[in-house]
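In practice, a research group might receive sequence data for several interacting partners and want a quick structural hypothesis before committing to experiments. The following worked case mirrors that situation: the sequences arrive first, and a predicted assembly follows.
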Amino acid sequence: MQNTPPIPVRCDRSPARRIINFFYFRPLWLLALLLAAPLLWFGVVYLGSLGALLVQSFFYLDDFTGQVVRQFTLQTYAKLFSRSNVDIILRTVGMASSVTVAAAILAFPLAYYMARYASPPIKATLSLAVLLPLWSNYLVRVYSWKLILAQEGVLSWFIRLFHLEGLLSLLLSLPGIGGSSLSVSAFGPFLAFLYLWLPYMILPMQAALERVPASLIEASADLGGRNWATFRWVVLPLAFPGVVAGSIFTFSLTLGDFIVPSILGNSSFFIGQVAYIQQGTSGNIPIAAAFTVVPMVIMTFYLIAAKRLGAFDAL
Amino acid sequence: MTDRLPAVEFIQVTRQFEEMKAVDNLSFRVEPGEFFSLLGPSGSGKTTCLRLIAGFEQPDSGSIRLSGEEAANLPPYERNVNTVFQDYALFPHMTVGENVGYSLMLKKTPQQERQKRVEEMLELVQLAGMMKRKTSQLSGGQRQRVALARALINEPQVLLLDEPLGALDLKLRQQMQVELKAIQKRVGITFIFVTHDQEEALTMSDRLAVFNRGKIEQIGVPAEVYERPASAFVADFVGISNLVSETLAQTLIGSAQSFAIRPEKIQISTLETPVPPNAYSVVGQIQDALYLGMSTRYRVALEQGGHLTVVEQNTTSAIPQGGKVQLIWQREHICPVSQVQ
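A structural hypothesis for the assembly, expressed as C-alpha cells:
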C-alpha cells in the first residue's frame, strides 16, 4: 500500500508503434487514408467519364468534314428529338416497362415462396437456380434464345406438340410487335430480356419479403384479413421497396442494352444500339453521348417517382 | 342463457409438433368476463394454447369452443377473438389511427364511424390525439396501448394477450398491469393473458392456470394457487417454496408425507420461545442471509440435516449469521404435495 510503484516510462516505442498510435488518436486521418483510393477511383474514373459524356453531348458533328466540333451547341439535342429518334426512345422505354412489369409478376410468387415457406435446403437450391444463369456467358445465352425462338426451334416444336399454332400466329400477326417468327418479332427481345433480368428482380424482392415479420401477417388475419386483404394491405406495401429495387435493375438494364435487340427482334433500333453504332461506325460521339444521357434522365425521374411512392422509406 | 356458456372451452385438445406434445390432452374452461392467466415456463405450452384459441394453430385432436360454438379448424379471421402480440405487430407503414382502424377498414365501416370509434379507442388507452402519429415515433408503452386499442376495437368475445408486458421496464410494467386490469373491468371482455411472470399472474388474474409440459398442473384463483399449490411444480414455480422430502418430513412433522411450505410462513424465534399448539418447530443455524430491501431471506441449516428458507420482514435488526434459532410454523400452512426428490 505505502510504496506505490513508479509510472513506467515507455522507452521501447518502435516507429511502427508510433504510427499506429498516431492514427489511433486521429481517427479522421485514418478515415481519409482509407477513403482516398475509392474516392479517387469513383471521382476520376466514374464521375469523370460521365462528365466527359455530358460535355460531348453539347458538341456536334460537322456533317461535311465528319469531324467533331468542340463548341457548345444544342443542335445535337435538337437532332435527338427528331421523329425517328423519339420513336427509338419510346420503343426502348416501352420494352423496359413491359419487361419490368412481367418480371415483377413472374418473380413475386417465387420470391414469396423462398422468403416464407421454403425450408433451408430448398431455399439454397432455388437461390442457386436463380443465380446459375448469371455465371454463364451473356452472349451465349442470348444466342441460345435465338435458337430457342427460331422457326424450327425448340419452342416451335413444343407449340406444335400442344397444337397451339393458332395462338402463335395470332400473336405474330399483332401489328407493331408481330413478325414472321418469335425470334424476329418484338417478343424475341422481350422474352430474352425477361429471362436475363429476372434474377435481379427475384433477389431484392425475396430480401424485402424476408424482412416482413410473420407476426404482422398473423395480426392481419387476427383482425379479420383474408389472404387477399392481407396481401393487399400488409405484404405488398411492405415488400414494395424490394419490388422497386428490382424494377430499377430490370428497367435500367433493358434501357441500356444493345446486344439483345441486335441479335433478336425485328431490327428496329433501341437506345443502346444507336449509341453503339453512332460512336463506333459513324464516329458521331456527340449524338451517341446525347442518346446515353436519355436513359440517365429517365432513370432520374424513375427514382424520384419511386421515392415519392415511398420505396426507400424502409432503407 | 348464452351468458352461462364458457367464453372458451378446451375439451381434450392435443397439439403435437413432431415428437413433442406442446399441448397434451388439455381440458379447461374460461368463464365470460374473466381475467384468466396462462402461467408457465417457456415451452410449457401456454403460448401454443393461446395460438390455438386465436386460430394460428389448429388442434390435432379435441374440441375448442368459443361461447359454445366449435372453433377448431376455423381460420383466425372467422373467429371473434383478437390478439395483442408479444412484439405488438403494429403495421409499420400505417399511422396509429390506421393501425387501430384496420379491422374496421377491412369490414368497410363508413369513414366517419371508423374515425369516431378509433378516437374512442385511443381515448380508452389514453392516446387521444395520437391518431396521425407514425408507429415508429412511439415509445414501447405507447405501442403497447396501440396494439391493445387495435385488438379491442372489434369488441371481441375474447382478448388474447401474449406476454404483452415482457418488453417494458419495471415501472411501466407495473403501471400497465394496473391499467390493463382497469380497462378489462371497463370493457367487460374476457382477457386471456399469457405470462411466465408468476407475480404478474398473481396480481392481475381472476383465475390462473399453471402450465407444465403441455399440461395444466393447477387452475384456481391466485390465493388458492399460492396458498395451496397442487403439486411440487406449482409450489416451486409460483413464488418460492420449501419443498420437504418424505424423509425430512418424517423427522420434522412425524409423517412421511412430502410437503411444501412458504418461506414467509415460517417464523424465526429464540430457542426459548414456547411452541404454540397446532404448530411445529425445529432448531437450526443461520447459514446465509440475503438482504432484499423490504425483507431478508435466510437459509437455515437444520440440526436434523437439510435446509429451510425463511423470509422475515425487516422490522427488527438482522439476525447474525451462525446464530442458533428456532423455526416455528403452523400446521395449516403445510401443503402436502406429491413426490419431492
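Before designing any experiment, note the following. The first strand of chain B starts at residue 8 and ends at 17. Chain B has two domains: 2-231, 242-336.
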